[in-house]
């Protein structure tokens, strides 16, 4: 990403629109306006000085990933009140060891990151996100387990451990490994009768049970609005960072039936899309 950022800057753009990893690779940039879409808190990692007045050359949209992590846990509990143990499935680079130790009451440890600033920033975002999930689990009186997926070929073995350990539900993190294995994850979750909540709708389209997230299309539309303002002469330092205002709940009714689950009427009524 850092190499891609250098190549991008060499083309001398007037405005840069960057998402996630690219945002962090560009963080030291001080000369070009950057409109970002970012999962974490841009203030926390010093992309901006404040939400209302960014104060530099960065502004854009937060994806509220930290807040939504807890909301998804609450969604699972609302649908499946008997659930007591939830597993988090993600790539190993997420700070799962910290999460597991915190959940089991042992001393809290931080995730050990690589030396590059980009990696440290990614770990910081992930850590905060998982802290939110752990807090939601604790508040609901649940137990949380860490299930790292080290390779897309390891999904079968991973589900064997999920079944052996008695995990009752899954929280599947959106990352390069899980998106690559999304169909296999959904199929195995059905065959083992394990309900799962996902961070974006793509997984539900592949057979996952349910997802809840911000409306991503709207965020990209808002990015275009930022670019338009900057081209008209607006200073990014004075354009407040925005948060999503539109969210979507997607339920796969076919998968619910395959799992033998009834969708609560209140949840069904709130769904923005039902896949049959």
SSE layout:
Elements: H1 2-10, E1 16-19, H2 21-25, E2 34-38, E3 58-62, H3 65-79, E4 85-90, H4 96-103, H5 117-139, E5 143-148, H6 155-165, E6 169-172, H7 176-180, H8 182-191, E7 196-198, H9 201-205, E8 210-214, H10 216-231, E9 247-252, H11 253-258, H12 265-270, E10 273-275
Parallel strand pairs: 1-2, 2-3, 4-5, 4-6, 6-7, 7-8, 9-10
Antiparallel strand pairs: 8-9
Helix pairs in contact: 3-5, 4-5
Please describe what this structure looks like.
By secondary structure, this protein is an alpha/beta fold. The protein has two domains: 2-63 and 215-245, Rossmann fold (3-Layer(aba) Sandwich), CATH 3.40.50.2300; 65-213 and 248-275, Response regulator (Rossmann fold). It contains twelve helices and ten strands. The protein has helices at residues 2-10, 21-25, 65-79, 96-103, 117-139, 155-165, 176-180, 182-191, 201-205, 216-231, 253-258, 265-270, and strands spanning 16-19, 34-38, 58-62, 85-90, 143-148, 169-172, 196-198, 210-214, 247-252, 273-275. The protein has a seven-stranded mixed beta sheet with strand order 5-4-6-7-8-9-10, sandwiched between helices. Strand 1 (16-19), helix 2 (21-25) and strand 2 (34-38) form a beta-alpha-beta unit. Helix 3 (65-79) runs parallel beside helix 5 and helix 4 packs parallel to helix 5. The longest helix is centred in the middle third of the chain and has 23 residues, at 117-139.
How many DSSP E strands? 10
CATH architecture group name of the largest domain: 3-Layer(aba) Sandwich
Order of helices and strands: HEHEEHEHHEHEHHEHEHEHHE
Please tell me the overall pLDDT: 84
What name does CATH use for the topology of the largest domain?
Rossmann fold
Please report which band the strand proportion falls in: under 5%, 5-15%, 15-25%, 25-35%, 35-45% or over 45%.
15-25%
Q: Could you give the order of strands across the largest sheet? A: 5-4-6-7-8-9-10
Helix content: 40-55%
Terminal CA distance: 39 Å
Class per helix and strand makeup: alpha/beta
Provide the CATH superfamily of the largest domain: Response regulator
Q: Give the biggest beta sheet.
A: 7 strands, mixed
CATH class of the largest domain: Alpha Beta
Domain count, please report it: 2
Q: What is the overall silhouette?
A: elongated
